[in-house]
Amino acid sequence: MFLALWHISLQQWWNHRLRLFLTTMGIALGVAVFFAIRTANVTLLNSLELTVQKVAGKATLQVTAGETGFPEQILDKVRATHGVKVAEPVIEVIARTAFAEEGNLLILGIDTEGDQQLREYQFEKSKTQISDPLVFLAQPTSILISRAFADRHSLKIGDTLPLYTSNGRKNFTVQGIFSPTGIGEVFGGNIAIMDIYSAQVVFNRGHNFDRIDLMNSSDVPVETLQKALHAELPAGFEVVPPKSRGQGLESAVTAMRVGLTITSFTALLVGIYIIFNSFTIAVNQRWKEIGILRAVGVERRNINRMFLCEAFLMGMIGSGVGIVGGYYLAAIGVKVMANMASSIYGFVSTATPVVFSMKYAVASFVLGVGTSVFGAWFPSRAASQLDPTMALHNIEARCKEKVLGWRRLTLGIVLTLSSLALMVWTPSGVGTSFQFSYAILMLLGLTALLPKLIEIMSHLLRPCLDFLGGAEGSLAVDAMIQSPRRSSATVGALMVGLMFVFSTAGYIQSYRHMVDRWMKQSLNGDIFVATTTSMRSTTYHFSEELGQQIAKVPGVKRIENLRFTTIPYDGDSAALVAVEMDGFMARAADAVEGKSESTLRDELPKGEGVLISRNFATRWTLHVGDSVTMNTPNGTLERPILGILDDYRSEKGTIFMDRALYEKYWHDSAVDFFVVMLNPGVDPVAAKQRIQILTSSSVHAFVYTQVEFKKWVYGLVDQFFVLNYMQLVIAVIVSVVGIVNTLMISIFERKREIGIIRAIGGLRIQIRKLILLEAVALSIVGVALGALAGMFSTEFMSHTMSTVLVGYSVPFYVPWMLILISLPVVIMISLIAGWWPAHLAAENQIIEAIGYE
Questions:
Q1: pTM: predicted TM-score of the whole model, two decimal places
Q2: How many helices (H) and strands (E) does the chain have?
Q3: Residue 576: CB partners within 8 Å, gap ≥ 6?
């Protein structure tokens, strides 16, 4: 029996090859996106870990104290600890080259005499050319470069390499070239070596080191030495293996990873609707065939098994194709994610081949097959429950489909309202997996209500299409009303695809409105001078002397030196902003909630308290009056919280303190931004030009007016959400596949109706108009329900998901303009997708159509 049914399935596949191809490719698309994002994520993390490990060399432990570094005296304490065999200091800088299209160069400042024991295999004498070691040590501008970098720019020993430093542009002399192996492979070969004490001078590090790389003695285990160093060093220090530092980067990019994970599940979810759409159409097309099979004694379970086995095989083929396509798509994903990691988080990664993970391949394959079977479950069950008597009647003689039972209606309403209640009232601490289930509940509820919603909207749409399209418009809408199950497949796929487009756009617009309000309150300087076009630079900074020069530019009233860095905090990390608080309160007092303004203006500049961002307060459950305790390289710092303000620089939360207090405990005078306030009446554009003239000859700086700064921030926001725009492509594909399939089955089901219309004088052009108007009606209903679902999804993203990822809610914003723009776009796509089915319907022979059963 089963083999006979399988032969019938194969015959149907051959007769409907196009639908088979489109459905299988829909599964492949979902699996490809899911597998590509997973693969790109693990590849990026591996490349970040590889960079850390190759730079670390043979080090078994690394001593760090955040991004700001620590005093040289710590090196003596480390070396004096029992069990330390070798301990060497390191300064790590990402410097901008003056070459036109080169970009950045990773520079390591090391003690070249003692460092050989840690990185000896990377500096073999037979493969490294050093012109004169004494000159290399004596001249602060001496540098060693990798062979890859030297060959790319035709550099040789004695040539000049121009770099931008914290003290302006300087010409460095190439004193050696090292092999493109080991450390030479890092950052695509864009790596150079300097003497550590020279690096302190040219990159304004004072008497600080960034970290200490060390090896343990053979008689002392790594874990024992790690505990001894923790006991010896101040609380602000971390002592971890290099591998742990690399793994720690994963938690730093949590928001990016989770956002991409949601996108990958979106692709799979759309795949479910594609398979649901396809099998609903298949059941309708094979209505009479199913009736005959049931009439000759085929059992319900075998009918069900026939369709589920078709879905299973489609899922296997589509998943296999998707995994192959996803592997190649991952290469693009890695580049995008690496750019995001660099721009948003300031992390350096080394280009590595895409990692093929069998674990993710198997997971993707199972999910692809599972979603296929799940998507086909309800259509296959409907096929098995089909009444043979009704199925054997002519199409026009069948009873009208039952739209919705009261059980399904009640279930849909309960699920939808429950998801909304959970989104609004459930606290963020219940867990990410539980909170993401709210969105699933919402989609299940809307899907259950879909036939009823389509019927209601079709009745509302009928007068409009009757007025605009005449009798053809009324017939087009009537076709949707009479077959809500068939229409639900296409509208559901459209709804899901457009829901994610609208919700993503709504969330981004909400985020931009929130950022705009934040900039007006806190980032309201007249001109901004930045070290980089990215969100932050972890290694390249300005000096305070440059700020003093800018302050002398005509028209400048005041400048603020702003340092933006990351510090360890209570087992995690937090952002730290150090700024002159008197100037900050002068321009941003309205942004702060907490103590009185007079108290803030008095105590903050004295370092007697700090401000915290709202997401920091949420993450750590802190309030005004509580204390914040920070472990610094120079002891424990505890200060009361004087106020709370909105700040969106870090999903980990931000602490604000006076710059003098920061310099006292971190011994760091570096500057990341200059906030420039101008005298009244001064033209910002003219002042910007004067500052550019000042900085162009000395440092690598980016100067923005307030308007330009806003555009720059918005660009960073868009870059963070770049992969979410993939959902628009998915939605377009769903629209085309769904509408073509639905209109094709509509033609077959209404073949006799179309023949009768032609027999009584209907023109071919009227038949084309009828089918195209049905496509228009489907698209209008799809956009409307997509907008409704998009509002629910936007609430989920702006409240629930945002709180989980970044610790704060985003004000709700409905993208009305995008919805209005999407309507004609989707209608146009529907008309294009419906052209071929309309052409086939118009070309049907009248006699053949009237006799169709």
A1: 0.71
A2: 30, 22
A3: 563, 564, 565, 566, 567, 654, 655, 657, 662
